[in-house]
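hey so i finally got around to running the thing on that chain from the lab meeting. sorry it took forever, my laptop kept dying and i had to restart like 3 times. anyway pasting the input first so we r on the same page abt which one it is
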Amino acid sequence: MTASPLPSPPLHSEGRGPEPEALDILYVDEQLAVVNKPAGLMVHDSALARGETDFAADRLREQFGKPIFLVHRLDRATSGCLLLAFDRDSASTLGKVLMSREVEKDYWAICRGWPEESFVVDYPLDGGPGKPLKKPAITRFTRLATTELELPSANFPTSRYALLCAQPETGRFRQIRRHLKHLSHHMIGDTSHGDGRHNRQFRMLGIHRMLLHARRLAFAHPLDGRRIEVIAPPDAEFAKALALFADAPSH
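ok and heres what got predicted. didnt touch it at all, straight out
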């Protein structure tokens, strides 16, 4: 994986409103950083931006005061650990580590229904719009907690939900979301691949975001090989969803 420095944004002129908030830094050294990306913020400009002008890459370049190299991406609706490097060599090394699956990536997701306690989805996925070629895609899931809420669903008086830990072994377009849809255990809050009825139930509870959070990253440092492990705390809305699970892990 070859990374290139992201182009600098135009200078802000006076009268354009408040400066964007700085992102929470979870780990930083001379070579790299891990930040906690908020849900709803795009990582960088792309064809999907649709007029958006606020990007994590721009905020981080200004926040650190130097060029950055994004090592991986998170969807706009996903929160949590975002890995970046400050030089091309570190970015290249970390990119190769990602491709070799030596980076441990844990995501927390909340889905409809109660899937098995542990399962693997091995289901090829295309690359998204304009990329019809399907490639292998594998995600490992572990069920962390379950809940049954007094919310009518279809012909049932209650609805069941599960908190999952997802560990993608590949990095396909919206992989976790699409794998859960494939199993009919749709991710809550996912407006593209989810179930509208259950999304509405959670909005009525005051939870309006997609419930996917990049919880943990663990990898070998590209300079000296020491192990780096970073955990991103969930935001207030995700924490509100976690509170629905009596047996949810501590966050």
